[in-house]
Specification:
This protein has a seven-stranded parallel beta sheet, sandwiched between helices. A four-stranded parallel beta sheet has the order 5-4-3-6, sandwiched between helices. The protein starts with a helix and ends in a 7-residue tail after the last strand. The mean pLDDT is about 95. The chain folds into two domains: about 240 residues, Aldehyde Dehydrogenase, Chain A, domain 1; about 140 residues, Aldehyde Dehydrogenase, Chain A, domain 2 (3-Layer(aba) Sandwich). It is an alpha/beta fold.
Length: about 425
């Protein structure tokens, strides 16, 4: 395959499709997503069969258990893909929404109205469900999509993409509105990063290596989805049993997702009164706890190395440290955090207010697990990623975040003096 020629062709097709999608009706987009969802469920056996090939590829590649979990599809996860597509289909159309409106003394009426971005390139690793999430959200927001899935999920993504095409056909929309790059060759990624004539924004979704590569080499604007170095801070005024439940869920529910907790910070005052029962819970569950200071003296923990803090393990490993109250937690997160998701567990409203005001992350949680850092859990149906930057989109990127806006100005023969 001539990668350059193939990617130029895909870009041209996407650009042409984006013009049609910009004025596609809400009904067309909804019907396309519903038809795609029906197809995914009808084809679930074929999708899971394709996933078996990907799982074998992943094992041969030596993927970790957490990465294999991200890759795996079963009936329940296929149902999740279906539910996500249907949820996005049922949402209000973000295109054409009047974001603001005002009248000027000159007699002009001005409206700021949401519009599609154009063509969105999505580069992602491992998780095949991203194919449906990204394709569905781009379509809902009137954008054409160029999807480049990970080499590990090549077969699964291809099977899911085929259903998205069925949905487009059913609604009379161009099949090239959602395209999947048909190769594992990494040269396709390099091509996408420089396709300024065709792609309006790139969304990387994956590990630090992928995101770093995209940020270094992209000439196209990027919505950065950086590491999920998520912290859970246990304040002096935390409820002990609540803290135990939240820490366990934040670390162990699914260790391979970006909302998994990677560090637990414990107020010294809490530790003096209650010790750290959640560390005992995690050790019993098979979590390796890399602890600093007196926590390293607890039976079963491992002495932490300096680089264990600020590290995304995506595995049954967590770093643990005592801090001097909420100020100590804020200071630590400011140094080691990734501006993704951080949580505070406490019954002290003043501590919550300070934490929420001073921690500069895209998502902050109070008395809730960091595993809720997910567009579906935010009512978005799905997400294209968690944007950790501050420009345009931040936090879960759903359909509404994949739009820009334009100004519509109406006069009545109005001229400027």
């Amino acid at each position: 395959m001539d990668i350059h020629a193939e990617m130029q062709k895909i870009g041209q097709q996407a650009k042409a499709a984006s013009v049609q999608l910009a004025f596609a009706t809400s009904d067309q987009k909804r019907d396309s997503l519903l038809a795609a969802a029906d197809c995914v469920w009808e084809q679930r056996a074929a999708i899971i069969s394709a996933n078996v090939k990907d799982m074998e590829f992943g094992r041969n590649k030596g993927l970790s258990a957490a990465m294999m979990d991200r890759l795996m599809l079963d009936d329940s996860r296929v149902q999740g893909i279906v539910d996500g597509l249907r949820s996005v289909a049922g949402q209000a159309d973000p295109v054409g929404a009047v974001l603001a409106e005002w009248d000027m003394p000159s007699g002009l009426n001005i409206r700021r109205v949401s519009t599609p971005l154009g063509v969105i390139g999505v580069i992602y690793e491992s998780r095949p469900n991203v194919t449906a999430d990204a394709g569905g959200l781009c379509l809902k927001s009137g954008n054409a999509a160029i999807l480049r899935g990970g080499s590990e999920s090549f077969h699964s993504s291809t099977a899911i993409h085929a259903c998205l095409v069925v949905g487009l056909q059913a609604a009379g929309l161009p099949e090239t509105a959602i395209q999947l790059v048909p190769t594992r060759d990494r040269a396709a990624v390099s091509e996408m990063l420089t396709m300024t004539d065709y792609i309006d924004v790139i969304v990387p979704r994956g590990g630090k290596g992928l995101v770093g590569l995209v940020q270094r080499e992209a000439r196209v604007p990027v919505f950065a989805h950086l590491e999920g170095i998520c912290h859970v801070y246990i304040d002096a005024a935390a409820d002990v049993e609540m803290a135990r439940k939240i820490v366990m869920n934040a670390k162990t529910r699914r260790t391979g997702i970006c909302g998994s907790a990677e560090t637990v910070l414990i107020d010294k005052a809490f530790f003096e009164r209650h010790a750290a029962p959640f560390i005992t819970d995690m050790l019993a569950a098979g979590v390796e706890v890399r602890a600093e200071g007196v926590l390293a003296d607890l039976t079963g923990t491992v002495k932490a190395k300096a680089d264990d803090f600020g590290h995304e393990f995506l595995d049954m490993i967590i770093a643990a440290k005592l801090v001097d109250g909420v100020d100590g937690a804020i200071e630590h997160i400011g140094i080691f955090g990734s501006n993704h998701t951080d949580a505070i567990v406490t019954e002290d409203a003043a501590a919550v207010e300070k934490f929420f005001q001073r921690v500069d992350s895209a998502i902050l949680m109070h008395n809730a697990s960091t595993q809720f850092a997910d567009g579906g859990e935010f009512g978005m149906g799905a997400e294209i990623g968690i944007a950790t930057g501050k420009l345009h989109a931040r936090g879960p990127v759903g359909a509404a975040q994949l739009t820009s806006f334009k100004y519509l100005v109406t006069g009545n023969g109005t001229i400027r003096p």
